[in-house]
Amino acid sequence: MRRPIIAGNWKMNKTGKEAAQLVLALIDKVKDANCEVVLCPPFTSLPQVVTLVENTNIKVGAQNMYYEESGAFTGEVSPLMLKELGVEYVIIGHSERRQYFKEDDELINKKLKAAFLYGVKPILCVGETLEQRESNQTFELIKMQLEQDLKDIKAEDVKNMVIAYEPIWAIGTGKTATAEDANEVIAFIRQNIRNMYDENTAETIRIQYGGSVKASTIKEQMAQSDIDGALVGGASLKADEFAAIVNF
Ligand code: PEP
């Protein structure tokens, strides 16, 4: 049985002070959650969030990283830095990084390899635009993203990672994919992992849905056969809403 994983992606929100307030408000509300709970604050709040969640069931993730260990890469943060902080997860290839910061699949592949090398578990985001969905390119696009992003990555690493299926048209728009549509794409992702690796890897990897997840949508999403959790943006910024989601 795969343990569900629900992660909050705070994006570029919350100052250090606000981050501490949100974490303190969440600790008690999520302590009995029947899933892995992960918070992904901005880099500036990572050290204090790691400290605040010590001895709780909350884990911490970063929203991005570079693939080199150190060097002349102004403004970047390395996997070694994250590892040393005690950060367990890192979001890689979020659509906002692909769109606004021009991250391509080749770069994402390098970042994934670096994350595995330093023992930080990646949450790889894949998903189609509205235009791609309307022109029936969703499955072709997802297959291509998986093949390029996971190029030369071993099954043992893939078993340890998380994939988030995030249709771009559903992110921050209030439009969620129907639970059945999300499950269909997620089952397709699992089938691709089966084809690229093996049955055991496909049955072990956890695949989340992301895109305007709310307390009112999570139950139906989690009832699907292949959805193993959620990557939550906007709704992870409010303690009561995020707690209701992880306590689905
Ligand atoms: C996200 O940031 O990954 C996301 C899914 O955002 P939202 O929940 O706000 O759509």
Structure report:
The protein is an alpha/beta fold. The chain has a domain at 57-229: Aldolase class I (TIM Barrel). Helices cover 45% and strands 15% of the residues. The protein has 12 helices and 8 strands. It has helices spanning 16-29, 46-52, 79-85, 95-100, 105-118, 130-134, 138-149, 155-160, 179-196, 199-204, 215-222, 239-246, and strands at 5-9, 36-40, 58-62, 89-92, 121-126, 162-165, 206-210, 229-232. Strands 1-2-3-4-5-6-7-8 form an 8-stranded parallel barrel, surrounded by 6 helices. α1 links the parallel β1 (5-9) and β2 (36-40). α11 packs parallel to α12. The mean pLDDT is 97.
How would you sum up this structure in a few lines?
The chain is 45% helix and 15% strand. It is α/β, with parallel strands linked by helices.
Q: How does the SSE layout of this entry go?
A:
Layout (H helix, E strand, L loop, with lengths): L4 E5 L6 H14 L6 E5 L5 H7 L5 E5 L16 H7 L3 E4 L2 H6 L4 H14 L2 E6 L3 H5 L3 H12 L5 H6 L1 E4 L13 H18 L2 H6 L1 E5 L4 H8 L6 E4 L6 H8 L2
Helix pairs in contact: 1-12, 7-9, 9-11, 11-12
The protein binds phosphoenolpyruvate.
Enzyme class: isomerase
EC number: 5.3.1.1
Catalytic activity: D-glyceraldehyde 3-phosphate = dihydroxyacetone phosphate
